[in-house]
Amino acid sequence: MPTKPKLTWEKSAGELVALFERVLPKGEAVVQKKMFGWPCGFVNGNLFAGLHKQSMIFRLSASDHAEFLKLDGAAEFEPMPGRKMKGYGILGDPLSRDPREIERWMKRSLEFTRTLPGKAKAPGPAKIRKKAGT
After folding, report:
1. Does residue 5 have a pLDDT over 60?
2. Which of 5, 35, 68, 117 has its CA 20 to 30 A from that of 49?
3. b/e burial code for range 96-128 (CB count within 10 A of at least 16 → b)
4. DSSP secondary structure string, 24-53?
5. Distance between CA 109 and CA 97 in Å, rounded?
6. Cα(111)–Cα(59) distance, integer angstroms
7. What is the C-alpha to C-alpha distance for residues 50 and 40, in angstroms, rounded to an integer?
8. Helices 99-114/14-23 angle, 10° precision
9. CA quadruple 19, 7, 43, 45: dihedral positive or negative?
10. What 8-state DSSP symbol labels residue 2?
């Protein structure tokens, strides 16, 4: 019987969280919230950027994604072995990079994700119970 890969959870460094919060666009319908314990940016309900361990992820158009993957330390985002998230790239060691480079990818990610159809908010637990007749 094949064994499942062991998942590891690693909190992002405080300096990385501070960098993410500094470069995350303000306003423009951007919402910051945590996903799986890491800070992330959403627009119209869609994830466009976030942290994963000590790296930063970006959702990009096909052409931007191809360009992004040419960067040293960039790769396809694969949160679990064998489970790539299509259209997402991950950038290793963002703290060692020029913050303007991070801001540029953040902006491109936001611009692309803004073109995608918005996601409807899932009903809260109380609404689900009412629909179920409880």
Report:
1. no
2. 5
3. ebeeeebeebbebbbbbbeeeeeeeeeeeeeee
4. SPPSTTEEEEEETTEEEEEETTEEEEEEET
5. 17
6. 10
7. 4
8. 60
9. negative
10. P
- Is 7 within the bounds of a domain? no
Q: Which residues contact 22 (CB under 8 A, 6 or more apart)?
A: 99
Q: How many domains does the chain have?
A: 1
Structural domain that includes position 39: 14-131
Query: What does the DSSP assignment read for 76-109?
Result: E--SBTTB--TTEEEEE-GGGS-HHHHHHHHHHH
Q: Which residues contact 122 (CB under 8 A, 6 or more apart)?
A: none
By residue count, the chain amounts to 134
Q: Judge contact between 29 and 43, C-beta under 8 A.
A: yes
The CATH number that applies at residue 81 is 3.90.1150.30
